[in-house]
Specification:
Oligomer: single chain
Strand content: 25-35%
Order of helices and strands: EEHHHEEEHEHEE
Number of strands: 8
Mean pLDDT: 93
Radius of gyration: 16 Å
Helix content: 25-40%
Largest sheet: 8 strands, mixed
Low-confidence stretches: none
Strand order of the largest sheet: 1-2-3-4-5-6-8-7
Shape: globular
């Protein structure tokens, strides 16, 4: 376990915990994001949190994948990739925040901010120049959260996802430069 702040910790996800991961994501993803999908997000959760997908993700050496625990209870996940590039970001030593999902019952309690502050500090220790992420342009609370942390939009694009409602496919690629001095 990695302690982030008192009562908040990270536990690495392992392949043997795929069912735990799947059930947690069915519980916490759909209440927040069901409006994006024709089927309430069930297909997305099934495609992203199945055993084969988890095995693929964990086999990548640059992947860091954690359960987020608050007061010893699993309340979300954090997944990021070190040294992950994209065409809009020129540095090679940059971290991609791929997934941060928290149970809606803990929203507004500073947990997301504490996780992001931990990720920023960790990325600096790994000599990363920046952190980047992809944020849905319709999820204004998430967008403003990342903006408050200093992220800036570097690119807009549209997801190619036929199971997602077309008006919800807009995405923003955002980046936070880190001071590694």
């Amino acid at each position: 376990m990695i302690s982030v702040i008192p009562d908040l910790s990270l536990q690495p996800v392992s392949v043997k915990e795929q069912e735990k991961l799947f059930h947690l994501m069915m519980k916490i993803y759909r209440p927040v994001y069901q409006h994006l999908w024709f089927d309430d997000g069930t297909s997305y959760v099934a495609s992203q949190f199945n055993l084969e997908q988890l095995q693929r993700e964990l086999s990548t050496p640059s992947v860091c994948y954690y359960f987020v625990h608050f007061k010893k209870e699993p309340i979300g996940i954090l997944r990021f990739l070190k040294d992950s590039t994209t065409s809009a970001i020129k540095e090679t030593n940059t971290t991609k925040l791929h997934r941060i999902y928290l149970d809606p019952s803990v929203h507004g309690q500073g947990i997301g901010k504490a996780l992001m502050e931990w990720l920023i500090a960790f990325s600096i220790t790994q000599d990363q120049q920046s952190i980047w992420l992809e944020c849905m342009d319709t999820q204004m609370a998430a967008y403003h959260f990342y903006k408050q942390l200093g992220f800036k939009t570097v690119e807009a694009f549209t997801l190619d996802s036929p199971t997602m409602r077309s008006e919800m496919r807009g995405m923003l690629r955002m980046k936070l430069n880190l001071n590694n001095s």
